[in-house]
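Summary for the steering committee. One of the milestones for this cycle was to obtain a three-dimensional model of the protein with 7PJ bound, which we needed before selecting residues for the alanine scan. The sequence and ligand used are listed below.
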Amino acid sequence: MSENSKNKQFNQAALADLTNVQVMGIVNVTPDSFSDGGKFAQFDHALKQVELMIENGVDIIDIGGESTRPGAVDVSEADELARVIPLLKAIKSRFNICVSIDTSKAVVMNEAITYGADMINDVRALQNEGCLDVIAQSDVSVCLMHMKGLPRTMQTSPQYTNIISDIVSFFKERITTCEQYGIKSERLILDPGFGFGKTLGHNYQMLAQFALFKKLNLPILAGTSRKSMLGNLLNRDVEQRLAGSLATAILAVQQGANIVRVHDVAETVDAMKILNAVAKHN
Ligand code: 7PJ
């Protein structure tokens, strides 16, 4: 939707402009996210999905080869590389679009950067072995997400002193660590991680007080699309959470979110156009 989608490099500076919210489209290449399973079918399907998202005005394509849903099991390096890299190459050779790779593995980050990834989206905020070094040797943008615990167990009674200040403290520590490794804060994007070690109440408190994350003066990403925080409140299956996804994306953007990570690109781009039209009069 923005000028950025026409530039090959992701333009982090443009995120400072709140009338320029970027829509990140989710492309999962994990076996559990497809019913047909077959390798070629999955690749083909993912590439078509990317093409459609671009037609619909997506700004960033986010490719994920590791399922991080609650209870998900670990995936090997080899499997994750085999899922993600061929798709990244195919996208970069066909389209001029910013690509983010959703991974927590240093090896995957390194390969992805070699093949032209513009952004690394890490739900473990570069805490795994070797990740800080790989990022330090590159110039990509990085999304640091907050997660309490690990996917397998994170939804078993997560507890916080104060969810907002606990997450802000976590961000501060990660920003300092990144800077110590020579990763400038201008490359960082923060994400409080809806659904990652949070109760339903925690998720809605985060959304209600989303603007507080802005005090760190970095771009913020919000990912609520189709999540169980919607399903549990609305009693809707995953395919029926579009209205909830749009409502939460709009609330986050009105409080300063710079990127929204979504499944439903066309609908979200429409919603963002409405917000932009209103923002021009403020
Ligand atoms: C998020 C993510 C999120 C970021 C997933 C799902 C689960 N990366 N990867 N933020 N969620 N940065 O999409 O339901 O919220 S996977």
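Key point for the committee: The beta strands are 22-28, 60-64, 98-102, 119-122, 141-145, 188-191, 221-222, 259-262.
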